[in-house]
Amino acid sequence: MSKLPKVVPWLAAKYRVSETRAEELWADALRAATLATPRVGDSEFWRISMQKFVASLEAERSARMDAPFRRWSRISARMWLLPLSIVARRQARQCVTLWRAYA
């Protein structure tokens, strides 16, 4: 882009997104604001474009940050729930055997 606002590289650094990706997200935000507002360049246009840009930066950061930790959090959750699942299976087998004994 030839004319990029000065806030775009600053927000890209704040959200830890590369500047080239921030330029792409800014272009997408401008397209969305163009479709959403009747007049291009007024205050509503810039408000919508900045909201869309910040939302896409947050989504980009959360998608990048969640990926490595999601797997480990699921593994740790399974490890904590393992004793409960063993007890539940044992009780289910015991109920079945007791039911067969009374039937």
Secondary-structure topology with pairs:
Blueprint: H1 7-14, H2 19-36, H3 43-102
Helix pairs in contact: 1-2, 2-3
Keywords:
single chain, 103 residues, mainly alpha, 83% helix, elongated
Describe the structure.
It contains 3 helices and no strands. The protein has one domain. The longest helix has 60 residues. The model has no long low-confidence stretch (mean pLDDT 81). The chain starts with 6 loop residues before the first helix and ends with a helix. The radius of gyration is 26 Å and the shape is elongated. The protein is an all-alpha fold and 103 residues long. Helix 1 crosses helix 2 and helix 2 packs across helix 3.
Q: What's the number of helices?
A: 3
Total strands: the figure is 0
Strand content: under 5%
Q: Evaluate the radius of gyration.
A: 26 Å
Structural class per helix/strand content? mainly alpha
Portion of residues in helices? over 70%
Largest sheet: number of strands, sense, barrel closure: none
How many angstroms does the end-to-end distance come to? 78 Å
Overall domain count = 1
- Average predicted confidence as pLDDT: 81
The outline comes out as: elongated
Order of helices and strands: HHH
Model regions low in confidence, pLDDT < 50 over at least 5 residues: none
Short description:
This protein is mainly α. Helices cover 83% and strands 0% of the residues. The chain is elongated, with a radius of gyration of 26 Å.
